[in-house]
Amino acid sequence: MEERTVKFVLKEVDLPTAWYNIVPDLPVQLDPPLHPKTLEPLKPEDLEPLFPMSLIEQEVTTAPTVDIPGPVLDVYRMWRPTPLYRARRLEAALGTPARIYYKYEGVSPVGSHKPNTAIAQAYYNKIAGVRRLSTETGAGQWGSALSMACAQFGLDCLVYMVRVSYDLKPHRRSLMRLYGADVIPSPSPTTEAGRAVLEKDPSSPGSLGIAISEAVEVAVKDHGTKYSLGSVLNHVLLHQTVIGLEAMKQMEMAGDTPDYVVACCGGGSNFGGLAFPFLRDILTSRSQDGPEGGLSERPHGLPETNRAGNPESHQVRRHPTIIAVEPAACPTLTKGKYAYDFGDTVGLAPVIKMHTLGHRFIPASIHAGGLRYHGVSPLISILLEHGLIEARAVKQLGVFEAATLFAKTEGILPAPESAHAIRAAADLALEAKEKGEERCILFGLSGHGHFDLASYELYQSSRLQDYAHPEAELERALSELPKVQGQMS
Amino acid sequence: MEERTVKFVLKEVDLPTAWYNIVPDLPVQLDPPLHPKTLEPLKPEDLEPLFPMSLIEQEVTTAPTVDIPGPVLDVYRMWRPTPLYRARRLEAALGTPARIYYKYEGVSPVGSHKPNTAIAQAYYNKIAGVRRLSTETGAGQWGSALSMACAQFGLDCLVYMVRVSYDLKPHRRSLMRLYGADVIPSPSPTTEAGRAVLEKDPSSPGSLGIAISEAVEVAVKDHGTKYSLGSVLNHVLLHQTVIGLEAMKQMEMAGDTPDYVVACCGGGSNFGGLAFPFLRDILTSRSQDGPEGGLSERPHGLPETNRAGNPESHQVRRHPTIIAVEPAACPTLTKGKYAYDFGDTVGLAPVIKMHTLGHRFIPASIHAGGLRYHGVSPLISILLEHGLIEARAVKQLGVFEAATLFAKTEGILPAPESAHAIRAAADLALEAKEKGEERCILFGLSGHGHFDLASYELYQSSRLQDYAHPEAELERALSELPKVQGQMS
Predict the structure, then answer these.
(1) A142 and A174 in contact (C-beta within 8 Å)?
(2) ipTM of the predicted structure?
(3) 3.40.50.2300, 3.40.50.1100, 3.30.390.50, 3.10.310.20: which CATH number matches B9-17+70-111+240-478?
(4) A133: which of A4, A264, A475, B332 is 20 to 30 A away, CA to CA?
């Protein structure tokens, strides 16, 4: 019979008990976040209205690891450890000599990786005596994860959902309400930020940036409410490292070592979660070369041609190439600027140094809502800036084509976000075929697509298209960065 | 902190390697299926146009077990063994002394238990040289499982989908097409059966019975096409016994023994899959009492009051009470007649002895499409008839209420079908609370509800209602049973 997908399952005892903190291993220190009003470096206490002190500490800690609390592990265990698969049927369909593996996070109750941090954030807020969490959501992946987490820890949950999604994508809205959350379409009359937008445009479709402004405002004004963010921040990516920590053990079980680690990247929580543990080796072996050891030099420095076929090259400790995949319609890493910018549209959220398309940039309506954000995690930006990771942008139709092939061969319907990684992994595998070269590719399958069938329906009926923003539009959005001292805009 | 859900995970080596066949353990022989035209007992060769010989043999075998072929196990391993959970948070919310466990099948790629037989059927057809499988589907659970299975084994797949679902529930239709299936709204002009219906009513919304007629007709007429059914038949329930076989091992891991085994029941594949392995002990201990050992006597014969608190009762080997849960709007087991009836509407499918509401019965449009079938598996009917299992009917609003509580406490959003079992399990747990009695309850959670959020949305906005068919309507449908010799209609 044909080749079959192979699953690698960890024992429960192999569930990681500490998250990996990449901060102390970075080649340089992160630029500090700035206060949105003063543009002066933020002090930890400036964040207190938004987050409990335990999470603020995680945001700035330089400890190499952070222990995962028992109650968080207890909830993780409902679906973790998650499986890792060897995609033998996809390999066969592509006719590639490459070995392809994927780590699957769609087995969580809400079908994505988001609960890895939602559960942790709900827990830390609960023990800090917080009554309610406020957050924003686009299509609803993050909102449903946080709603579920709040239900698990007996917290109230208030979700500002981008109005266009609220109206057109009612399913995840229903899911959040089932978990007990209050879901409000944004912009809303419940906040100053929302009212200001509605005054200018009463029929505003909303945006993630506006919804963030509303959720932040509620947390600032209401003593019992804190704010929760599903990506971008250091502590969020920290929590997601369970993905990569498990994947490393599973690759060991498989007796294989990835040459490429590939994940889709919006705000960066999925990418960071899978990639950071694989970067640890790269970063620590670099630092042994001394602090000046070639910041701009690629650490995965062996030439491609040395990688395959040559038995000697297998003696050398190889580092994987780490690739962040983003939509061509929201090319933050590939076309954005590395600069200080607001995290939200209105300018209430901290100003952070990151790759950004400008906080006023409105990405095209592609069907990977989770990847439509103007910025990206500062941690990922600094890694890209120092050549420690690569970034690729892929187009929508190619993404859906890869997703369809994946469903047929591997059986799992991927979320459109996750399918960006499939597209890039397939391209690497096809390149290997062309070069007649062995390769080991690991990618992150961050969620299933059971909520996204309306998008697949559009694809099947040829009603989707590729979209790239004109350069002039990108330039215009980038001209509106905040005037931070020393920053050229 | 609060109580936490506990997961029991089998090792991969504990994946069952043989299905359990309940047929040889039945108290009496099954009445033979009849030919739909002659109403004479069917010969195995009469089924050859529909099924490959290997599956016909499984339909009639009296072997105690049937080995699971390696290639089927290889695909099962993509998501099996599935988890079993102790619902500690649900218990706490109900304030019950009962211990509640659930076996979760929603981790399969299509989110339900259906692939357990779809994979097996696709495999046996593939090795028999079949080119294409035809089938019917209502809301699409079965159609998507078979489409996925056909993609895994390189078979074509033709799905007749009830038109009203095809038009109103496009999501699973898209999913089937993603897996490569041809999906045709039924009734269709592609078959005589479909044309006959359309002639009378060009805007017919269709029904599962009509769609079966169409799929069967194609298999009969096209040499390379065989037919595949997702429930009711002996070999289908056989394949599903992996669920109960795993659950028994997991209850052992938990160190507990169920007093109640509860599952929702439409055609019966989910119920049979979980319950049959637990019935084996009951049936074989009965047969040791001699063949006449009280066919109508309940085997779970210890009085309720002996079950808890009394240490002596724990010395006695207790048998669980097995409960099939159906919708009050389609009360096949609780209000149907045990009689010969057609499996489909038009009268092309075999005539089988079962509990039935009459093959012309059209159940109300409840939001558990998988439970809207006029009949039930003959295996389940005979067990009910001999008092070896019990049946309960539950109403829609209570089902959605239980589903919502389950999502909030256990985190998993259940399919509305599966939520029928939750409702019944919760009722048993509340009864235990009232009586101040310990109990161990195991129920089957056959699938997740990520495809069913439109139904939950209706529930949330109070647009769902309970429905029970008037007795006169039930009587009228039952007056149209086929005139089989010796059958009083």
Answers:
(1) no
(2) 0.92
(3) 3.40.50.1100
(4) A264
